[in-house]
Design goal:
Length: about 230
């Protein structure tokens, strides 16, 4: 199990009561020093393993799979962190995070809803996600000005991931949502013409928010096959 940003140990202490070994990734030097003082890293009996550094750059492939990742994620960099974790999805058993509620709502949003966007597509492509519970501001000291929520993320089986070229898929999704109020005819004009939309069975008058993961996968696979015919 890996905890992101243990901080003052609100999660760390109860986790250590249940686990034989816990890895933590922490960037704050003062917190690292305190952790290494409380849990000497040269003692083989210590249950806490400290990895000093930025979670955005940490190579989770250096840890034995399957991983369970938890944490109260920094709200200001939550989206980049989630994208980074997604790159290791095949090594992950599950992930549980507390995030700003607005971000969680975007993660689990359905197509054609106001919250549905690039984050929704890119995470739903790799994970089953469930909002578990709301966490009100008064649960914190000091109380923040935003609501929080806890989300569970479970990687999808490889057999359910139907994209041939993930980089192309990501590029199409990013381009489509780059100007989300415009129609697909305009946002994807660099990828698809009228004939292509017809062949795909996708209405060019729709916006990116109206397409789900299967439709974006269909577009990416169509473009990849056109570029690299079998």
């Amino acid at each position: 199990m890996v905890e992101i940003g243990p901080g003052l140990g609100a999660l760390t202490r109860p986790l250590l009561k249940k686990l034989n070994r816990l890895h933590v990734v922490e960037i704050d030097r003062d917190i690292i020093a305190r952790l290494e003082h409380d849990y000497p890293q040269n003692n083989p009996e210590v249950k806490l393993i400290v990895h000093a550094g930025d979670a955005l750059e940490f190579d989770f492939a250096t840890l034995a799979a399957p991983l369970r990742i938890v944490g109260n994620l920094p709200y200001n960099i939550s989206s980049p962190l989630l994208f980074h974790f997604a790159a290791y999805a095949e090594r992950v058993r599950d992930m549980h995070f507390m995030l700003q509620n607005e971000v969680v709502e975007r993660m689990v949003a359905e197509p054609s809803s106001p919250e549905f966007g690039r984050l929704s597509v890119m995470l739903q492509y790799r994970f089953n996600m469930e909002k578990l519970l709301d966490v009100p501001p008064q649960s914190f000291r000091p109380a923040p000005k935003v609501d929080s929520a806890i989300v569970r993320m479970i990687p999808l089986p490889a057999s359910e991931i139907a994209v041939r070229n993930e980089k192309l898929f990501a590029a199409v999704v990013r381009t489509a949502f780059g100007q989300r109020r415009k129609t697909l005819r305009n946002t994807l004009r660099g990828y698809l013409g009228e004939e292509d939309f017809a062949l795909l069975g996708i209405d060019a008058q729709l916006r990116a928010e109206n397409l789900g993961v299967p439709e974006f996968a269909k577009v990416a696979n169509y473009l990849d096959e056109r570029k690299n015919p079998a």
